[in-house]
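User: Predict structure, ligand potassium ion.
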Amino acid sequence: MLLAIDCGNTNTVFSIWDGEKFLCTLRTSTHHARTADAYFTWYSTLVKHYGIDVEITDVIISSTVPRVVFNLRVFTDRFFGCRPLVVGKPECLLPREPRVDEGTIVGPDRLVNTAGAFDRHGGDLIVVDFGTATTFDVVSKDGNYIGGVIAPGVNLSLEALHMAAAALPHVDISKPQKVVGTNTVACMQSGVFWGYIGLVKEICERIKAEREREMTVIGTGGLAPLFAETEALFDVLEDDLTMHGLTVIHNHNKEG
Ligand SMILES: Nc1ncnc2c1ncn2[C@@H]1O[C@H](COP(=O)(O)OP(=O)(O)OP(=O)(O)O)[C@@H](O)[C@H]1O
Ligand SMILES: CC(C)(CO)[C@@H](O)C(=O)NCCC(=O)O
Ligand SMILES: [K+]
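Assistant: Predicted complex:
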């Protein structure tokens, strides 16, 4: 049984893959100081709660935070007796190599999204992932990651306003009824919500124009549905793209 771990700058997600489906998905905030024993306490409590009794034989990790990988390796070794595959390390093979400037270290989450999206949809894709940052991953006809766009994340943008301006409160994202806000919170939500609708549209249009072709736009990440409700920004919405990509890369390494 495979344990897939997606460690982002904000949240860490564990999912158990039985070869056909995910049995459960567990989420915790990312902390570089969390020890192997702390991971196990959290993990074993939740799998027990869900009534899952499986033997983990394989682990694959994608981490955008390099520091957490050490403790996740210890966790994997100590409690499952195996060595994890770590996306981005030389020993972890990718189905298609990224084509970027020499010396560029592409975020492993973007490599994983690319592999997952190409497996499901074929090539010429734009994957828009709403995490800590909002990333656009451009996938070639043949399935290579060929570059993209990194924009500040939705929650990060709201938080930045709050942090930098004394009179601006902490606000959660939601769809404003109107564009013209008549109170501070509504003004802030309008700026970020409608600003993001425009950002996604404009960037996707410009990518298609630059590449001189039609491309399939895939939306993923926690906030993708909120934007998709309002405007037809995406051709496809995926709620488990990163996890799917991890299973694709794991399979590729097993077969290879
Ligand atoms: N309607 C909503 N309003 C506010 N936040 C939401 C809403 N729906 C989902 N979310 C947030 O989306 C997040 C899940 O997003 P996702 O897992 O894609 O990225 P992340 O964990 O924030 O970032 P990263 O992967 O970079 O750590 C959760 O933290 C959740 O709080
Ligand atoms: C952009 C983030 C933070 C998105 O999670 C991550 O993919 C990352 O740290 N990337 C490294 C730089 C790059 O992908 O070009
Ligand atoms: K993510």
